[in-house]
Amino acid sequence: MSDYRIQGMTGEWEVVIGLEVHAQVTSNAKLFSGASAAYGGEPNSHVSLVDAAMPGMLPVPNRECIRQAVRTGMAINAQINRYSRFDRKNYFYADLPQGYQISQLYHPIVGEGAIEVILDEKDADSPRKTIGIERIHVEQDAGKLMHDQHPTMSYVDLNRCGVALMEIVSRPDMRSPAEAGAYVKKLRSILRYVGSCDGNMEEGSMRADVNVSVRKPGAEYGTRTETKNVNSIRFVMQTIEVEARRQVDLIEDGGTVVQETRLFDPNKMETRSMRSKEDAHDYRYFPDPDLLPLELDDAFLEECKSSLPELPDAKRARYENELGLSAYNAAVLTAEAETAFWFEDLLAAGAEPKQASNWLLSELLGYLNKVGRPIELSPVTPSQAAELLNSIKNGTISNTMGKQVFEAMVENGLGAEEIIRQRGLAQVSDTGEIEVVIARILANNPGQLEQYRAGKEQLFGFFVGQTMKAMQGKANPGVVNDLLKKALASG
Amino acid sequence: MSVDKDTVNKIARLSRIAISDEEAEKMVGELNGILAWVEQLGEVDVSGVEPMTAVIPNHLRLRDDVVTDGDVRDKVLANAPAREGIFFGVPKVIE
Lengths: 491, 95
Known about the structure:
Chain A is α+β, with helices and mostly antiparallel strands.
């Protein structure tokens, strides 16, 4: 879908990218304990003795976390494994008091799936590409270390420790930073529709390990590196750019790429080796003897399936085919679940789809972007907006007036009809009233009238302007046009 | 399967267990003894036998998604070798 190439001294290079996305599962409690999984909270308060790995504590999986992983798998059309198992990934670090992370290496809960990405969502002809997903498994998050609180000690907060994560592992199917960006965006959109992850990258709810290798086009895969914990879509794309460039320069200088983990430094725009962690790769996985295999029954799977909402691809197709929206409008409205839900509330309140979609994208999103508010916190409700749109549609106010009324609604929270009445903004469509004004204008401007009738038809605009001015802009422009034509012709 | 002294030292390092050279030597013999003993299990033909995960038929129990625990900071920190206010204190570890 894209021919992204890196120019080296020896010719062009192709980049091969695979992503491991860690998405925090939306749940009240942690994966294996009853402690709160909420973000924030006083340090070490959302911690049970299970999370602190006290002797004798046993993990019991949270049904909701399992359910959300399965629903996510279904949303990417993946194979759901009725039988899966938990394994211990052993490593020694202060952020994980157990000394191992409970994960799923050998038998993940979700197998092969795929998502379709569109490079430029706003362009109907933009090429599409299917990115394979190898697996999704559930695992525990680790705690947080703070290094800047004490000269010789690091502080440990275990609030995150044991919170459920889904690790979503893609195939090495991406070939450019833009494709990787589109993939993360699409994945995030699906997770938010499903409700299995809030997709909040700033709070760390979603982060990616970025696997990058380079090769001459068509050649065998090169050796890859893995850049850990990249926490925004922009950084994912930048990581790929700088890491691919580094590998090309290294190889062309006669060096070889070492398979290793690296860190991205956005300030210096470079990736750095994490050599100190080399040992840590020897995870000595083995099945967790504290947990029996996880077996899912028909009723459980049926509920997962039936509780899935309409997903972005289906919604987008329906908006285009059934509502007759443009590809651009359908794409932007469905990219974020909240926008789509707001739009659907607007339709349910009686707005006409095309008009509603144009208004939402230009007026409402324009305003919300300006003030930096998400659509869920829009000062105008869908039903208030529907009232405004219908006032425009039935000719009570003009489009231009509509903008003014919207501004007033935002300012004082009143309904559209209320504002129109209070400010006397309603358009005059009463032909009688307009005809009187037109007759007066023609009588007051005999010179222009004569010139017009002599063939200077440009003067039509002059008469429209005079009429609108006399009516303080409140006359229905369509009606004014019709009546003026008639009056000017009959003379 | 058997281990040599290097492997024993590596496992010890990964587990953050300090062992002396002498102990490592001794451990090589002990671990190899255990491995050889376990290897005898390989003599049994288990092709076609499902791996057993529990001695009695049992299913993994799941928990409801309700917050029933936590807010026990003092208990959690009670045995910390170095408590720093509301945190565990550990030797500074920076990448």
